[in-house]
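WARN no homologs supplied; continuing
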Amino acid sequence: MAEVVSPAAGVAAEAAAAGKPSLWYNRYMLDINFIRNNLAAVKHATKEKGYKTDLDALLALDDERRTLLTKVEALRTERNNIASQMKNGKPAPELIEQGKKIKGELSELEKSLSEIENRLNDELKNVPNIIFDDVPLGGEECSKEIKVWGEKHESGVDHLDYCESRDWVDFERGAKVAGSKFYYLKNELALLENALLQFGIETVTKHGLKYMTVPYMVSSKVLEGTGFAPKSSDQSDEYFIDGEDLAMIATAEMPITGYHADEILNEEDLPLFYAGYSACFRKEAGTYGKFTRGLFRVHQFNKLEMYAFCLPEQSEEIHQKLLGIEEEMLQALEIPYHIINVAAGDLGAPAAKKYDIEFWSPVDKKYREITSCSNCTDFQARSLNIRVRKKDGSLETVHTLNGTAIPFARMLMVLIENFATEGGKLQVPKVLQPYLGGKTMI
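OK structure emitted
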């Protein structure tokens, strides 16, 4: 059973144990001491991921905070000593005057300290996670292929033309109701999506993942804690709720990360595996010029997401486990693919390493992304105060990992491109036939 603690209480206890007086100390993705002690590695990751945070200025600001904090703590001690002296009889006038002076000085210093901590917190939000040594450097084009599976189909049909001709999808009415890039799935295509979901649930639960549905909205605390703060405002992918501290989720990764926020997990319970099914909502900001046809890039889609909380020493093995489950499903669906080790410039803030699986598109004659799998180390868990109590009683921040099981809109497109027949029917992969009443064609 996990211990539930308040953010302040949890961090205060950890800070006190380490001799650290500041409550905010470990509340952001990278601990300020980690940055200070690993400055070259953090600068390297910040540059390679495309962030412009001035880490030297950040550390100078932290030095200023430390100096102010020392003064504040000294005045607080002096104030407490005077308060103790005033308990015994009528205090001397000079003692009262000294107390007033300290109170005034302390008030000004505490205000300055609060302002500096707020500035420092804002800067810490813009420091991305480090990158592992085997991550390729450079932009998206520098990602490296590490595996190829399956026989590439020579030809395929355009999924959007095919779906519209069979009355399986309606983008026109979707746009009428909600705007561009919203759609209705209909008839056999909607049933095929349900078959994919049942297949996905059966596969992930077989591997020990606990299946759950999740909230479709999260607070700004969870949004920031998962590391989805954009590099710039025009890249914000989330839909925000006016008048509420809520945003629509872009992935079930967000609410699952927050599931154990402000909790202390038990070492013997780790690793914990979850699979979350949800609708996902994305503005797709910053995707100008990328492939957007039909179901490939839309504002709302359903997805089955895998997630793990684990000990730091378990995360590399679990990264491979999640990637293996993704491969197992694609191979069962007989989808040709390759795996790439994603380059640093395309990683995003939370991931220290990410694999993308890209399916072969016989229509476009190229690979396109279908799933991803990320090791976020302690980056997300540190911000959301998710820790583990070790057997020796010590506390440690857990590692978090995520992997796409099935992105349903894209997967439907993949099946159509690869399994539409010349006779106009769609061949149903064997693993999905039991969920469609045994049908081999639809």
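The chain has a mean pLDDT of 90.
OK
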